[in-house]
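LAB NOTEBOOK - FOLDING QUEUE
OPERATOR: T.R.
BATCH SIZE: 2
PURPOSE: Compare the predicted structure-token outputs for two unrelated chains run back to back under identical settings.
PRIORITY: normal
REVIEWER: second-year student, initials M.K.

ITEM 1
FIELD SEQUENCE / FIELD STRUCTURE:
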Amino acid sequence: RGFYSSYPSPSPSPLLFPKNQQLRQPHQQLYQLQQLQQFQQLHQQQLRQLQQQPQHFLFARFYSGNESEEDGEEGGENKEAEALLKRGKELFEREDYKGSYSVLLEAYDTFEKQHKIQHLLVVSTLIFNVCKKGGLETEKQAFVERAHRNAPEVTTEEEEERKEFEKKAKSVMEQTSEIYQLQNKGKALMGKGDFEEAKKTYWEALKLADHIDPPNHGLIALLNAQTGALQGHVGEYEEAEIHLRASIRHYKQVMGGGKNFYMKEYLETVRLLGDLFMKRRRFASAVKEYEVYVEEAKKYRSFRESWDGMLLVADCTIKMDEFDKGFQLYDDAIHFAKSLQMNSCHIETHIRIGQVKEFLDKPEEALRHFQSGLALARKFGLVEHQAKCLLHVGNLHRMLKNTQIADAHLRLAKDITTTSKMQHLAHLVDFYLGKLLLEIGNLTDSGICLKKAIDTSKQRDINVYRSALCDYGSILVKEDKPAEAISLFEEALDYNTKFQDHAGRESQNERKIENPVSILKKIPQ
């Protein structure tokens, strides 16, 4: 058993398959075009609604630069308005739309007297939402007419400027919409495994993003990160590193000192750089990148990512054969997780140590850590972690030929993953249970489990997919179906060759799929 078979290498980044999410920065380009910093923190949906009411842009021009930074004598009145705003939101959540409208209107009046334009824009958007949700068309029209009456007179020059702004805004939104479409197309192609077409699609999106004026750093950063993650996934490491470093540069243009919209994506990109070096077995370089990841995560008070980085540094240290230092780093990760009461992280660290001990051929120590993790998972009621620990305990007993104990633990894991619909673990449970049943000669049930593992692992875990193909092929050999077995072995070998070409020369101590030719020699003549 090689290192990467018992001890997982970095998994594909979530950036490869992002959830349906809007890119978060396009609206900022519109604000920059109008040079109104007050708009910077507003949500994109709010901006779209406000664009439908031009008088609010006129308010912004009129009040731009005039908002008082200090509450001064208006401090009490400002607190009262804030309380009204909060009350209006509460009534809106209770579906008391008329009550919410009245309270928000009072808040609007107070902010208007203080020339608090940023607050006015927020309250205006809330009022439009209340009217829309509650069907208050009369109230909405009255509010719009009132806003028009209170708006300052507009000169011809200001009107032309507004039209120019709207023209530029429309252009930016059209470009951004096209980028959204390309991003979704790339994501769909990734899901189908069509990596080459996905790369072309992301490159096209990047070209469009580069032409947005002024530069949309958040959008460019995300597209570079997704492109780099994809290239790293298929083994194009030099190109991937270029894109990931470009992504980090652009993220730094929009990152502040505290948590913000881009923190999660930024930290994920920093981590991916370490993953690239880890996959190439350049562990010293990986440690440097992961240490940056740890420090950046602490800077943004993202403690789970800090813990994750600590584990990755320990992983690399172990792979450099610095075992004492590596295990001390794992202990540090356990103390870190316990001190912050991050129970799932505490359990995950025990699992990771167990995997390493298993690789180092210390099954008793590995079993102790897996069982410690299982006890903690049961104590804290973490069902998913119970399934993970049961899976590892069961597989370790399988390797130690403790068939009955292995079967009991793996079936418990299967019950949990089936009941809780844990698809991300189901393929592993089916794979190891299938191997166990194959080893004890239950070919029928083993075949059922291995076929499930093949169906569910192709897009989740390529190592499991290839191994399951070979194991199921061996069943077909025993069932005297050599033609079908050859087809599976060839597919496994094809994936093995393709990914070895990309993954940069695996070392001799890593697990290889058994050559189909050597397997076929075992077929009875």
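ITEM 2
FIELD SEQUENCE / FIELD STRUCTURE:
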Amino acid sequence: MLKWQNYFFTLLVIFILSSPPTLVTGQLEKASNTIYMYPVFDVHNDWMIEKVTGTSVIIRDLSDITDLEAEETTYNLLLPLEGTDILSLYWTDYSLAIPTIDSKTYDDLLLELLDRTPAHTPEWQGSCTFDDTKPLHTSSDDFFKQQKFKLEGNYAFLQVLEDSNDHAIEIINIADIAAPVKEARYKHENTPLFDYAVYEDTMFISIDEAENLRLVDISDKNNPINLNHTFSVPYEYYCYLIVKDNQLFAFSERTITVFDLSNIPDLELVYELELEFFGADQIQRIAFYEHYLIVIRKTIISIFDTAIIPYSLMSEIAFDGPGFEGFYYGVVDNEYLYVSLYNTIEDYTLAVYDLTNILEPVLVFPIEFTTPVPVSMLTSITTLIQTVFIIIFCRKKRKKKQRKEKVEQQFFTNRDTHS
């Protein structure tokens, strides 16, 4: 019996080692929180809010980033909103701004405002309804198709899609969140609008034309006026705009163009950063930490020092977790970078990096992985076939041995009889 066991286990090891590579999928041990599309989460002053589904959200106290999912600092809430589906979420210093829609009709967007004091129990205060509008999109990884929202002082700027499919930007006074006031709806004769950004009394818009960067005077919020100053920046299928301090960053798939805003409407070109481009490794988003530019691409995050021109590459971040497919969206709060990513284990999840040492950012969440959970379908089928084959082979060997023993026994019996 001992010999048979040794033979069986030896054969099992041989089959496993000689079998073709099979996929064993790992699972993040703690990253069970679901981060959906852009940007259905936001982080501000050590508080994070993320959409779950409909109008239910999770709010997290991030004071202890090492235990991001601690029960005592995690709050599951069903927000009392007028809309039935949250499009995006934005913290401000004193409020929570949420564009919503009726998920049944997908008609007439709303901007709902909540008091965020205290942050873990926001209270609904007021809303604005935008007639004859609909959301750009509600379930896409494409930044261009997402509902964009910008803040500048006491004003909110919400991109909408009119029923005629024209792009427009709603300008709303939110100084009193209990009674927000619609100031104007801005439209450009050339639509669609790729993106927009606001700096003081000027709104910048990007459109699909050779001179794709335009300026709008919004000193009178009730009467936006197009300026004659136009600029051209490199772009492929989109051109996104972000204002940082007194600089405008316009970026597309692989190029970031930086303008100084000291002499509006004249924009002074500061620098143009062109990244090496491999396949689908396009720029997803840019963010900032102190004087560092964080470029989030599909497969890697690059960090540049903008203090001296030309910008110098300080470090790069690659996610090493199992099943990683790509980065999507990221925000910086204090010294941490929060970035959503897609992997083959959970559709969407989250990684958090400590940027204190900009030369070597440290992954602080998730901090460990467990593998192999679950085992892939290919692995299960392969293992089953191997097991069945081993059982059949061993049974045949046993029967052959039994036949041999029977023949030998018959031989000796016949020999004894003749003797």
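REVIEWER COMMENT (ITEM 2): The CA atoms of residues 125 and 241 lie 30 Å apart.
FOLLOW-UP: none requested
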